[in-house]
Amino acid sequence: MTTVENAAGIAGTSSQARLDRQSVTGLVFGFLGVALIVGVAPAISSSSRRFNFEPPPDPAGIGFDPPTWVTAIGVLFLLTAALGFAPPAARVWASPARLLSALAVIPLVLVLSLALSDNPSTNIVNLFNESLVLATPLALGSMTGLWCERSGIINIGIEGTMLAGAGIGYMTYATIGDAQSTGWLWFSILISVLAGGLVAALLAVLSIRFGVNQIVGGVVINLFALGLTGFLRSEVIVKSGITTGVGTSEFGLPLLSKIPVIGDQVFRGQPIYWLMYVVVIGTWVVMYRTPWGLRVRSCGENPHAAETLGVNVVRIRYQSVILGGLIAGLAGAWFSMESQARFEDNMTNAAGFIALAALIFGKWTPWGAFGGALLFGFSRALGTRLQFLGVEVSGFEIPSEFLQALPFVVTLVVVAGAVGRSIPPAAAGQPFQRSK
Amino acid sequence: MAQVGNGTARPVLEVEGITKTFPGVVANDNVSLTLNQGEIHCLLGENGAGKSTLMNMVFGLYRPDSGTIRVRGEEVHFEDSGEAIARGIGMVHQHFQLIPVFSVAENIILGNEITKGAFLDLDTARRQVDALADRYGLAVDPDAIVGDLSVGEQQRVELVKALFRDADILILDEPTAVLTPGEVDDFFEVVESLTGQDKSIIFITHKLREVLAVADRITVLRAGQVVGTTTAETATQQSLANLMVGRDVVFRVEKAEPDPGKSVIRVEDLRVTDDRGVETVSGFDVEVRAGEIFGIAGVEGNGQRELVETICGMRPAIGGRVEMLGQDTTGWSPRKIHELGVAHVPENRSKHGVVAQYSIADNLVLNRYNHRKFSQRGVRNTAAINAEAKELVERFDVRTPGVEAAIHTLSGGNQQKVIVARELTGDLRALVVAQPTRGLDVGSIEFIHRKIIELRDQGVAVLLVSAELDEILSLSDRIGVLYRGRLAGTVEATEATREELGLLMATGAQS
Amino acid sequence: MNGVGNANAGVGRAASQVHRFLNEVWRLQPLYVSLYAILLSFVVGGVLISIIGVNPFTAYWALLRGMVGGGDQIAGSVARSVPFIGSALALAFAFRAGLFNIGAEGQLLAGGVTAAFVGALSWMSDLPGIVAIPLILIAGTMGGAIWGGIPGVLRAKTGAHEVISTIMLNSLVLFGVRWMVNSRDPVVLRDTDSTVPRTDPISETAVLPELVDSQPTLHVGLFALVGICFVVAFLLNRTTFGFEVGTVGLNPHASHYAGINVNRVIVASMAVSGSFAGLAAASEISGTNGFFQPGTFFLMGFDGIAIALLARTNPVAIIAAALLWGSMLSGAPLMQQEADVSIDVVRIIQAMVLLFVAADAIVRYLFRVRELDQSPFKATSIEGAV
Q1: All structural domains of chain B
Q2: Candidate from A18, A293, A435 with C-beta closest to B56
Q3: Which stretch of A116-120, B70-74, B446-450 has the lowest confidence by average pLDDT?
Q4: SS3 of chain C: helix, strand, coil, percent, to 5
Q5: Is some CB atom of chain A closer than 8 A to the CB atom of C347?
Q6: C2 to each of A391, C9, C10, C15, how far by Cα in Å?
Q7: Closest CB from A227, A360, A428 relative to C348
Q8: Which ipTM value was assigned to this complex?
Q9: Do C384 and A430 touch (CB under 8 A)?
Q10: Residue A76 distance to chain C (closest CA, Å)
Q11: Using one digit for the tens of pLDDT, what is the confidence trace for A208-252?
């Protein structure tokens, strides 16, 4: 990864440019704030709108006046901008203010969407829940990437690993469980997980044992999984005739799902969705609170130093990559046995790459990556919702493609270091050869 | 000086008949060595003599082809350094083995983690680190992030790391390379106090002065073989040097009186930042005249790299100016400065000096490949390039099978000769040369020194930056000390003393 | 006795000739590794085919006939291979500059949509073919060059790694072109008369002349892409620019030291790289499809990576590797039809080829091939990514 720094170092100009990042961010917020207050707020209708918290009829919710909210958020942006140029004493507030402003973009988008729509109200609890559900495979995939890259192995084969998990899991379910039996469903999910681990093991062998470039290794995995699952689908699944079945079923968390209004919406869900939280929290705990996690991180930062302390870098990297693969396998199962109960060619549809983007967006930390996954999930959920609400800007519908593309732009901006540079583990991508 | 055992020297580490080969090189050839309880045993040798290889085997990082290692009388075969650590061996590597983004405590416990249940127990770790630091007088802050520490502090972390693992055999690989003469003295005190607490120490170095100052016994390695074992009492610098190099060594470089002409390089109030954006050159001034060698001494990391890179156009200045041959060259590109007649022998040979996979010929024209002679209408003239290369290889005595061999197949000394040949060719007016002899054998060092003096005698202005005080003292006509990005003082080489320079390097102030 | 002696001498001479021949061959060892890798992959594929109860020889025979069984098949195979040359060159060229351009897919889309847009402009039909055809090709090339240049600029100016940025840009352009050809309100590029989302057909004058009326059509774009391979080979090996690209690729620090403008070379290399993908896309739009659909270039970027690696990034060898790749895909339907083996087997075989080429240690071990050169795909030669 040194090359990233190097290229910037050679450029020579970038270090000065980076010094000004705070002021650039300040300027952007300042501009947005002014635009919101002067331009947007007066332009939108001030008819009352409602955010509902539950489905009709007679839902609980809050009503609001869009221009007021837009103005309020505009003021927040302006304050943030001002803090960026404030005397050093006040600057301690600049960073929390930036975070708050960044988060305020979400209510802003919602308020604007509703203001521009013909519908007076929408259920936002349900929207957030949809975002979380859609984020499930992305969050799992980004944990895969996290385990691999924190140990020093770049994995662009997450996509293929998921696909293999999805395909092989569903094939198992269809052939031995007729895609109906609950017992075999769980067994098949387990097979998905193991298939993911196996595919990741291939990447591990290629990159660790054979020193193959890790990017190339990832490409091999992606092509291979696409071919293999396509083959299995046409030779096994289609020939078995069971192309669709029954997936995992929803259940409510005890007690929590009894909470009035939101309980039944927020605390009901399918098992892999819940497992996603377990995986994210578990990843955080294991990576930052256990000796093994410390060792994994050391292998991704300076494997040679780790080696001098008796850490078995090769073994740690194998373990991390395979663990990552198991998680990706679970993400695969989400596609073919939870979200739907079927398997289609290229079913994961670039989710693995989005997971990678979420990981980078989250600066290689578990919660950051989860946040990134949520952002992607939200933009997808919102895209659908906007079409549903019929949001129009000066007569044109906002294409859902734009909303879906937005997180990629944000990630690109983050990678380019315009807002909070994302720095990968120092040794990611570097092959490690044990001393002889 | 610690006393050599009282006749009952107890060996804690015995290395017997160790041989280790890497593809094409015999790094260690039947090497034997004994370390006694409580002694400081110096392992002396030139760069590439096999000192580090030997110690990496003792530490379990490499495995010997043949021979035995015994720790406290017991034969051991380490599979990895974890096993060596378990036997009480600790090693401080020449290049620190630390993880910059981890805290001091995390770095120290890595591999031997303290746990409470299944989880890391960083509180206990902190307390233990503090206790160790107190006991050995090695102040470290367990919560500091290692990447933010100075080199000296990082070295202390490395020592605590070894002591945390209860090491009583400590291997120190060139520990003084990064320290000022003053810090070196402090470091020696720490080392001596360690032997007082029953630690036994192997001290790897190629600096004769240090050997005589600190060693109880000395083993000299040359080309992978032990050529002598002696004690500090009986050895002299000259005798050790002869053993180390294998022939008589002349300490002083012969050179004529300087005949400085007009100013060629003038740097005024220069300010430069490093890769992390930290200002490392802050208000540097210097003037180098034609026909003189101006040596810049100083501990590494005081802005040398950034200074040289900025003068040669590789790094932008954030303030001040560089003037060469009467022109303001601040902000010029490396190519434009080179065309002016300014040559640059870079500090980092493999990073900047050569393209390892390229042939010797391509490396010899690396910064002139676009000249009319070597390229017509954008198409390269291979014949002309090879002809030029053949001539230079001849003239600079590069030992190679042919000019089309990849340069990474050459020894470090010959690679450096290629760089020197490339840079010292053409119509030169100024030469900026950084660490020109780092890691080279004595023969190549002498050759390169002679070439630099030849140039100076032809009227070229030479700016020499080196961490080796001996090199500065023997080559320079005037000497400046770089301290925290400024020129701390300038002295005439004829009047300079090691003590005065050492003080300048350590404190930036003249006595 | 004499006769025997002569015979021995003859054998000795022959042996030494064989030995010399082998030495020559070993010098071409990268090629050998690739050939062995292909062989090995077909063996693995064969095992897979047997598992589903089909005689692999029957399947492979059908595949072979689908590939080169007749004039039409050969022409179809060649036609199918043409765009792969471009996407593989896109990887290979950037690779020389030390950049991992996995964004060929996005660059194909950008080039394709630009070419389709320009080709369908109303005034194109007024131009003679000799003007219109170069125009559409240049448009595609520029589209690819711009989309490839962006990660180059990001890398040079901010240090953002091209692997990450090209992945992001692939997704971005995909959403972009989907919207352009899907949207009816407003109409951007969609052909509103068509039931499937695609752009308006390009003008007749901008259609590349057909060589053989095969499936798909073999057209003059073949010459353009094959020609480019030789141009690139010359550029990389013989010119000062090629020297600069190679130097930056091997050691950017030394390049900077030697006075090469590293940032300019990085941006130029990525843009040039992308332009090859753009050209390939334009030639497909112009010569084969006649309009643009987002799905046309699915996976072609990743196939390009595999082909470039199979050819060891040698521009001329890319022609052969692309031919193999394209003809396998072109022949697969016949295999499916006659032997009832899913065409995905070809995909698996191709992934195995890439695997064995990349992990050449496996091949060298199995076939006892000596290691002579430094493999360009060893991780060490491509600096860390992502």
Answers
A1: 252-341+427-511 (3.40.50.300), 354-425 (no CATH)
A2: A435
A3: A116-120
A4: 75, 5, 20
A5: yes
A6: 100, 10, 12, 20
A7: A227
A8: 0.83
A9: yes
A10: 29
A11: 988 888 888 998 999 999 999 999 999 999 998 988 989 998 888
